[in-house]
Design goal:
By secondary structure, the protein is mostly helical. It is about 45% helix and about 5% strand. It is globular and about 55 Å long.
């Protein structure tokens, strides 16, 4: 090979080696290319947290695992109805469901919400209320219970969070007991005997006592608003809260002192006629009796989360005591 050719080859090799060295240097020095994001963007409105024993949050293996520890289900029975100027339409459903969740953190029991609406025809004068017939409610809950029975659940605690559902809830309980292998109770009634003791225990631990109001205070009043301030605080607009102006038929107005004094006969007669749909002609729908939708004349601004906490914890603890007693009286696996 001629000297000139050898020089040309050497030059070519030098250029090649230099290029290779430059490429290697850049490969080491260059930052790594960005990898795909580990977590994709999520719904900015989503704020829910997974709750133990809450059916909508669970996978089927988690339900299967829970069935090894309990055959009990709490079913909240709520409503979608007006709750004055300050309370959310979903108050009853939401409060009842939150109470059930709190119970399920203290004792193994499934929480299974079925429906949001309930029976609320007397609130239809206010926009947003949704009411279902008692027959529809009963049919849906009964069929839902039948599904849960097929999976192995046997004991059902219906937590009625709306007074208008009382008769329907009792009928569902009876149908479960009469027509299925399941056994059912209404949780408010079941927890009743334990309430006084649970309240005294709360006070003994330092909870403030809240005396019952000396005025008429029912739907969306101080007691219910206090529950909401504790259970669903960001949904309550206390800036809009004000005392309602109530107009009752004269004969019902005359009963109020006895109703407030907890006279059972007066209360029975009063509630048989009050809070009824406008179509009945009784003039006792909420719109006909209250300018705000609140059924009561207590000062709503006195409601507090502290009062709601005492009320809620009393009910939760009383419910847990009943559930534990039922577990001892009828262990799992009894046919």
């Amino acid at each position: 090979m001629k000297r000139a050719d050898r020089l040309n080859v050497a030059r070519a090799m030098a250029v090649g080696l230099a290029g290779l060295a430059w490429a290697n240097t850049m490969a080491v020095a260059a930052p790594a290319s960005p990898s795909p994001a580990a977590d994709p963007p999520t719904n900015p409105l989503w704020s829910e947290q997974k709750v133990r024993n809450y059916l909508p949050d669970m996978s089927w293996p988690e339900v299967e695992d829970l069935l090894k520890r309990t055959d009990m289900v709490i079913i909240p029975v709520g409503s979608l109805e007006e709750h004055g100027l300050h309370g959310p339409i979903g108050t009853d459903f939401l409060n009842g469901t939150e109470q059930a969740k709190l119970i399920a953190q203290k004792t193994d029991v499934l929480v299974a919400p079925i429906l949001m609406p309930g029976n609320s025809p007397y609130h239809m004068g206010f926009p947003g209320t949704i009411t279902l017939s008692a027959e529809t409610i009963e049919k849906v809950y009964f069929e839902a219970v039948q599904s849960l029975i097929k999976h192995g659940f046997r004991r059902f605690l219906l937590l009625n969070a709306h007074g208008g559902n009382a008769a329907t809830t009792r009928f569902i309980v009876d149908r479960i007991n009469q027509e299925t292998p399941g056994v059912a109770v209404e949780l408010g009634e079941a927890a009743g005997p334990f309430m006084s003791g649970a309240y005294k225990a709360a006070v003994a631990k330092g909870a403030k006592e809240f005396p019952e109001p000396r005025v008429f205070d029912r739907h969306s009043g101080v007691g219910e608003t206090s529950d909401s301030l504790y259970l669903i605080p960001n949904l309550v607009n206390m800036k809009a809260a004000r005392t309602a102006k109530m107009t009752l038929p004269p004969h019902l107005q005359a009963m109020l002192p006895q109703v407030i004094a907890k006279d059972r006969t007066a209360n029975l007669v009063f509630l048989a006629e009050a809070l009824k749909a406008k179509e009945t002609g009784k003039h006792t729908s909420t719109r006909e009796m209250s300018d705000t939708g609140v059924w009561g004349v207590a000062d709503i601004t006195t409601a507090s989360a502290a009062q709601g906490k005492v009320q809620t914890e009393t009910f939760v603890d009383a419910s847990v005591q009943f559930i534990e007693a039922w577990k001892k009286l009828r262990p799992m696996g009894v046919n």
